[in-house]
Design brief:
10 helices; P-loop_NTPase; six-stranded mixed beta sheet; ATP hydrolysis activity; binds adenosine-5'-triphosphate; Rossmann fold; four-stranded antiparallel beta sheet; about 35% helix; nucleotide-binding; ABC_transporter-like_ATP-bd; alpha/beta; ATP binding
Length: about 260
């Protein structure tokens, strides 16, 4: 299977603001020496408690932030923050908060067409926007409306349509369901599952919800205090976790009575 995204020895430390004139500078090791591989057709779930470094790791892999050490490669080519049109066509992202990630002054048409225009992708953008809206379960007639006119779930559908616009191979989701009502989560989860199948997407999903990862991912990486404490096929890691932290995470997942 072709290797798509690869992170090697990634570390990122943040210097926190001093809390007083005399307090020593504090450094937060958000990600420490993490390596991972994403292979075509597989999907990787990054799980861990809040603050374990999941989003920082995702930002490094998306080349939205620069590691202090380590490298990111896509199909063997090194990726560094900067103008990366070739990489942005291949790897797209859906963030947690669809309201925060959609420009309130832009119409749905302009939001979904943004990557097509920024990446100068040829073709009829209006037709492509309509096709993408249909793919995410929205009627193309909504193209002239604004984000505030939609529910949270519909806004996340718009964000997903935008991410799919350039025809990416990899879709990164940073907690794409956690800002949504519980009733809507299952719908967006099913949509991501269907789209991954229909478009042959490789997913990289950051989630604190192991149920989501169990449903969508073939592989899992468990983060604790910035380190990857366990990684491997989801079926074996989630059925027979080796690390006590993974066991604790799994034990914290509420189970519905059969
Ligand atoms: N820009 C930043 N400046 C300072 N500290 C940061 C910054 N970004 C992240 N951190 C710190 O790095 C650590 C890891 O944060 P990160 O957001 O990656 O964790 P997370 O697992 O995604 O958590 P959550 O699920 O709550 O989003 C946290 O302690 C966080 O406070």
């Amino acid at each position: 299977m072709t290797q798509l995204l690869k992170g090697t020895g990634l570390s990122r430390t943040f210097r926190l603001p001093r809390t007083s004139l005399f307090a020593p500078a504090v450094h937060r090791h958000a990600v420490q020496d993490v390596s991972l591989e994403l292979r075509e057709g597989n999907s990787l779930g990054i799980v861990g408690e809040s603050g374990s470094g999941k989003s920082t790791l995702a930002r490094l892999l998306l080349a939205l932030d620069r590691p202090d050490s380590g490298t990111v490669h896509y199909r063997g080519r090194e990726v560094k923050p900067g103008r990366l049109p070739w990489f942005r066509r291949e790897v797209q992202v859906v963030l947690q908060d669809p309201m925060g990630s959609l420009d309130p002054r832009a119409t749905v048409r302009d939001i979904v067409a943004e990557p097509l225009e920024c990446l100068r992708i040829p073709g009829d953008h209006d037709d492509r926007v309509d096709e993408l809206l249909r793919a995410v379960g929205l009627d193309p007639s909504v193209r002239g409306r604004y984000p505030h006119e939609f529910s949270g779930g519909q806004r996340q559908r718009i964000a997903i349509a935008r991410a799919l616009a350039p025809g990416p191979k990899v879709l990164v989701g940073d907690e794409p369901l956690s800002a949504l009502d519980v009733s809507v989560r299952a719908q967006i989860l099913a949509l991501l599952d269907d789209l991954a199948e229909a478009y042959g997407l490789t997913l990289l999903l950051v989630s604190h919800d192991i149920g989501v990862v169990r449903r969508l991912c073939t592989d899992v990486l468990v983060m604790k205090d910035g380190r990857a404490v366990e990684q491997g096929p989801a079926a074996s890691v989630l059925a027979d976790p080796r690390h006590p932290y993974t066991r604790r995470l799994l034990a914290a997942v509420p189970r519905l009575p059969a």
